[in-house]
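Okay, can you check this protein?
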Amino acid sequence: MRIEKLDTSNAGDWLDFFDNRAFFDHKEWGTCYCTFFYQPKFENYQKLSSSKRDYAIWLIENRIMQGYLAYDDDNAIAWCNANSKNSYPRLKISNPNEDEYVKSIVCFIVEKNYRGKGIASALLRQALDDAKEEKFKIVEAYPNKRAEDEYSNYHGVYAMYRKNGFIDEKVGNRIVARKYL
Protein backbone atom coordinates (compact mmCIF):
# COMPACT_ATOMS: atom_id res chain seq x y z
CA MET A 1 0.00 0.00 0.00
CA ARG A 2 1.11 3.54 -0.68
CA ILE A 3 -0.38 6.87 0.35
CA GLU A 4 -0.43 10.02 -1.79
CA LYS A 5 -1.66 13.53 -1.16
CA LEU A 6 -4.57 14.50 -3.36
CA ASP A 7 -3.66 16.94 -6.11
CA THR A 8 -4.55 17.51 -9.74
CA SER A 9 -2.18 14.73 -10.90
CA ASN A 10 -4.16 12.01 -9.11
CA ALA A 11 -7.62 13.59 -9.24
CA GLY A 12 -8.63 10.98 -11.83
CA ASP A 13 -7.83 8.22 -9.33
CA TRP A 14 -9.89 10.03 -6.69
CA LEU A 15 -12.86 10.33 -9.08
CA ASP A 16 -12.53 6.68 -10.12
CA PHE A 17 -12.62 5.67 -6.44
CA PHE A 18 -15.73 7.77 -5.72
CA ASP A 19 -17.47 6.87 -8.99
CA ASN A 20 -16.91 3.11 -8.75
CA ARG A 21 -15.86 1.77 -5.35
CA ALA A 22 -16.17 4.15 -2.42
CA PHE A 23 -19.87 3.51 -1.78
CA PHE A 24 -20.42 0.20 -3.53
CA ASP A 25 -22.10 -1.12 -0.38
CA HIS A 26 -23.74 2.16 0.68
CA LYS A 27 -25.11 3.57 -2.58
CA GLU A 28 -27.28 6.23 -0.94
CA TRP A 29 -24.08 8.11 -0.07
CA GLY A 30 -22.69 7.69 -3.58
CA THR A 31 -23.23 11.30 -4.58
CA CYS A 32 -21.50 13.00 -1.63
CA TYR A 33 -18.04 13.27 -3.23
CA CYS A 34 -16.84 14.39 0.20
CA THR A 35 -18.08 17.94 -0.35
CA PHE A 36 -20.34 18.28 2.70
CA PHE A 37 -17.89 20.22 4.87
CA TYR A 38 -17.12 22.60 1.98
CA GLN A 39 -20.79 23.70 1.81
CA PRO A 40 -22.98 25.77 2.03
CA LYS A 41 -21.23 29.04 2.71
CA PHE A 42 -19.14 29.04 -0.44
CA GLU A 43 -20.85 31.78 -2.44
CA ASN A 44 -20.35 30.24 -5.88
CA TYR A 45 -21.51 26.70 -5.00
CA GLN A 46 -24.80 26.92 -6.92
CA LYS A 47 -23.26 28.67 -9.91
CA LEU A 48 -20.23 26.41 -10.24
CA SER A 49 -21.82 23.10 -9.78
CA SER A 50 -24.66 21.20 -11.28
CA SER A 51 -23.61 18.30 -9.08
CA LYS A 52 -21.48 17.55 -6.05
CA ARG A 53 -19.12 15.70 -8.38
CA ASP A 54 -18.59 18.86 -10.44
CA TYR A 55 -18.10 20.85 -7.25
CA ALA A 56 -15.53 18.33 -6.01
CA ILE A 57 -13.61 18.62 -9.29
CA TRP A 58 -13.62 22.40 -8.93
CA LEU A 59 -12.41 22.10 -5.31
CA ILE A 60 -9.55 19.83 -6.35
CA GLU A 61 -8.57 21.94 -9.36
CA ASN A 62 -8.43 25.02 -7.13
CA ARG A 63 -6.46 23.15 -4.44
CA ILE A 64 -9.21 23.72 -1.89
CA MET A 65 -10.05 20.06 -1.24
CA GLN A 66 -7.11 18.29 0.37
CA GLY A 67 -6.47 14.88 1.80
CA TYR A 68 -4.91 11.51 1.15
CA LEU A 69 -5.51 8.54 -1.11
CA ALA A 70 -4.39 5.03 -0.20
CA TYR A 71 -3.54 2.73 -3.10
CA ASP A 72 -3.32 -0.99 -3.67
CA ASP A 73 -1.24 -1.27 -6.82
CA ASP A 74 -2.71 1.36 -9.16
CA ASN A 75 -6.18 1.55 -7.62
CA ALA A 76 -7.22 4.07 -4.99
CA ILE A 77 -8.83 2.08 -2.18
CA ALA A 78 -9.32 4.69 0.54
CA TRP A 79 -9.64 8.42 1.15
CA CYS A 80 -9.05 10.73 4.11
CA ASN A 81 -10.36 14.30 3.87
CA ALA A 82 -7.90 16.42 5.90
CA ASN A 83 -7.34 20.13 5.58
CA SER A 84 -6.91 23.37 7.48
CA LYS A 85 -9.97 23.89 9.68
CA ASN A 86 -10.48 27.30 8.06
CA SER A 87 -11.03 25.53 4.71
CA TYR A 88 -14.28 23.93 5.87
CA PRO A 89 -17.20 26.41 5.94
CA ARG A 90 -19.39 23.83 7.73
CA LEU A 91 -17.08 23.76 10.72
CA LYS A 92 -18.10 26.61 12.92
CA ILE A 93 -15.02 28.66 13.55
CA SER A 94 -14.68 28.68 17.31
CA ASN A 95 -11.53 30.72 17.70
CA PRO A 96 -10.20 32.45 14.56
CA ASN A 97 -6.81 33.03 16.17
CA GLU A 98 -6.43 29.34 17.00
CA ASP A 99 -8.23 27.73 14.07
CA GLU A 100 -5.59 28.80 11.54
CA TYR A 101 -3.23 26.39 13.33
CA VAL A 102 -5.72 23.49 13.33
CA LYS A 103 -5.75 20.71 10.77
CA SER A 104 -9.15 19.01 10.69
CA ILE A 105 -9.85 15.44 9.67
CA VAL A 106 -13.47 15.19 8.62
CA CYS A 107 -13.91 11.94 6.72
CA PHE A 108 -12.53 8.48 5.97
CA ILE A 109 -13.78 6.18 3.25
CA VAL A 110 -12.27 2.74 2.79
CA GLU A 111 -13.37 0.37 0.05
CA LYS A 112 -15.39 -2.47 1.58
CA ASN A 113 -12.90 -5.27 0.80
CA TYR A 114 -10.10 -3.35 2.54
CA ARG A 115 -11.83 -2.39 5.78
CA GLY A 116 -10.39 -3.62 9.07
CA LYS A 117 -6.84 -3.80 7.69
CA GLY A 118 -5.39 -0.65 9.28
CA ILE A 119 -5.69 1.55 6.21
CA ALA A 120 -7.54 4.36 8.00
CA SER A 121 -4.87 4.27 10.73
CA ALA A 122 -2.13 4.57 8.10
CA LEU A 123 -3.94 7.53 6.53
CA LEU A 124 -4.30 9.14 9.96
CA ARG A 125 -0.58 8.70 10.70
CA GLN A 126 0.27 10.32 7.35
CA ALA A 127 -2.03 13.25 8.10
CA LEU A 128 -0.39 13.66 11.52
CA ASP A 129 3.14 13.52 10.08
CA ASP A 130 2.28 16.07 7.42
CA ALA A 131 0.50 18.34 9.93
CA LYS A 132 3.75 18.57 11.93
CA GLU A 133 5.71 19.32 8.78
CA GLU A 134 3.14 21.94 7.74
CA LYS A 135 3.52 23.66 11.14
CA PHE A 136 0.02 22.97 12.41
CA LYS A 137 -0.17 22.99 16.20
CA ILE A 138 -3.35 20.91 16.58
CA VAL A 139 -5.06 18.12 14.67
CA GLU A 140 -8.78 17.91 15.31
CA ALA A 141 -11.30 15.20 14.42
CA TYR A 142 -14.99 14.60 14.98
CA PRO A 143 -15.59 10.87 15.62
CA ASN A 144 -18.97 9.57 16.67
CA LYS A 145 -18.37 7.85 20.02
CA ARG A 146 -21.72 6.07 19.80
CA ALA A 147 -21.25 4.69 16.28
CA GLU A 148 -22.57 1.18 16.00
CA ASP A 149 -21.61 0.34 12.42
CA GLU A 150 -18.99 1.22 9.85
CA TYR A 151 -21.27 3.75 8.17
CA SER A 152 -21.58 5.81 11.34
CA ASN A 153 -17.79 5.89 11.60
CA TYR A 154 -17.15 7.96 8.49
CA HIS A 155 -15.35 10.52 10.67
CA GLY A 156 -13.00 7.74 11.77
CA VAL A 157 -13.31 5.28 14.63
CA TYR A 158 -13.01 6.95 18.04
CA ALA A 159 -10.64 4.23 19.34
CA MET A 160 -8.25 4.90 16.42
CA TYR A 161 -7.90 8.50 17.51
CA ARG A 162 -7.36 7.53 21.15
CA LYS A 163 -4.62 5.05 20.12
CA ASN A 164 -2.90 7.88 18.28
CA GLY A 165 -2.82 10.25 21.24
CA PHE A 166 -5.97 12.29 20.72
CA ILE A 167 -7.81 13.60 23.76
CA ASP A 168 -11.37 14.80 24.19
CA GLU A 169 -11.64 18.55 24.45
CA LYS A 170 -14.50 21.02 24.42
CA VAL A 171 -14.27 23.38 21.45
CA GLY A 172 -17.10 25.87 21.34
CA ASN A 173 -20.12 23.90 22.44
CA ARG A 174 -18.95 20.50 21.22
CA ILE A 175 -16.52 17.81 22.35
CA VAL A 176 -13.94 16.94 19.69
CA ALA A 177 -10.90 14.69 19.51
CA ARG A 178 -7.68 16.72 19.50
CA LYS A 179 -3.99 16.01 19.30
CA TYR A 180 -1.47 18.70 20.15
CA LEU A 181 1.68 18.50 18.03
